[in-house]
Amino acid sequence: MNINSTVISGYQALNDIGYLLNDKSKALLVTDKNIEGIPAVQALIAQLKQHIATLSVVNNVPPEPSQHDVTAIMNALTLRDVDLVIGVGGGSVLDVAKLLSVLCAENAPSLDALLAGEKPQQRTASLLIPTTAGTGSEATPNAILAIPEKETKIGIISPVMLPDFVALIPELTTSMPAHIASSTGIDALCHLIECFTATVSNPVADNYALIGMKKLFTHFETTFAEPDNLQARLEMLWASYYGGAAIAHAGTHLVHAMSYPLGGKYHLPHGVANAILLAPCMCFIRPAVVSKFAQVYDLIPDADALLDNDAKSHALVDYFTALVKRLKLPASLEEIGIGPDHLPYLVEAALDVQRLMKNVPTAVTANNVRDVYLTLFPSYQEQ
Q1: Cα separation of 113 and 118, whole Å?
Q2: What pLDDT shows up at residue 27?
Q3: Which residue segment(s) compose the domain that 39 sits in?
């Protein structure tokens, strides 16, 4: 898959984007109310209005949007014949913006057709600007929607949705609450490590994953210790972007497959679900990817280079466990009120995500999935 997006990045890089807008007269800005109120986003909107004659704003994208949310947004649009769709926000906003760039195109398929597997043939030009460093949606051909009726999520996937332009602007991430920054950062880490260890891994995806993990291990926790460190925040935006690029060339697997039911049924934020599952899932696949885990461990700034590969692979899993704890993210489902009586549903729903399960680098049975979920109920294990 070719990623042909033009990427601009850096502090105040949005101050001179007029050249991207010269031939655009009608645009649709997709965001949410919280993001819309950020001073830097207000400045962007003012700049857009200087260059674009007609700017329509969608500012009601919810977290973890469903197909019903997108249908409601489409039905409320008063302007569909646009030259440019601009997404400014987290992964949910960017996913919806990508879908709208397809749904607003000429002779566009319906959303139901896309959900049924029809592939879009064209889209309106698009510019994606992430305000979180995590999903990498600006670099993926995916749009993820919740399907409430099935209590799960589904991915609409097509290279047509890859944007024309991406802007990685560190000052737009400074308003992120700490818990959002931590969970979205873990999401980026999951993208990187899963793509690197997937059955569909390849040299292109591996290169993106290794570069992204090096940036993430070096700068992730600095963004908490030094909230105004824009260089660290920019490096995290790039780590997230590389995670998305890795997805575009490979794919995630066990963590994401097992987290989908947690988001679909219990509405657990995606990054939090991934944080809970990261270490247990990596512990399960570790024997199958010892050398790759050792390679990743060596990217950690204070890694012990004297360990052998097997010890490094164990040390990497321990690092993931400690990282989630340092970020004050939950490490079990019990902590958030989900009990072991939900195990049968969780196992069945996770195994149903075959698009991702087939990427796991070792054989996975229902008992394996159950055993991994069981680690998320510590008191139940003690009985």
Answers
A1: 5
A2: 95
A3: 6-173
